[in-house]
Amino acid sequence: xxxxxxxxxxxxxxxxxxxxxxxxxxxxxxxxxxxxxxxxxxxxxxxxxxxxxxxxxxxxxxxxxxxxxxxxxxxxxxxxxxxxxxxxxxxxxxxxxxxxxxxxxxxxxxxx
Length: 112
Fold this sequence. Notes:
The chain is mainly alpha-helical. It has one domain: lambda repressor-like DNA-binding domains (434 Repressor (Amino-terminal Domain)), CATH 1.10.260.40. The protein has 7 helices and no strands.
């Protein structure tokens, strides 16, 4: 996700796959009105950064991937700075699990 349209498409797909209504998601994320979800899906409203963890949880998606996509689309300069300073925060849970498994294998001598 590098553009606002890609973020909107990602969220539209994740919402469809979740099987939840805009009303359900809005309630879980803390939006007073479900039309905010529609506006995010169409790209008329950007995904509020403070709501990324709740949105990811409501949709069953990785918050790091959503955060990285939103930063790339809405704040690319900030994304570059954060990526340079803390690249480990922009990896997915799956990637982190893989890294931990490799580190464990190295520590225990499974991989030399």
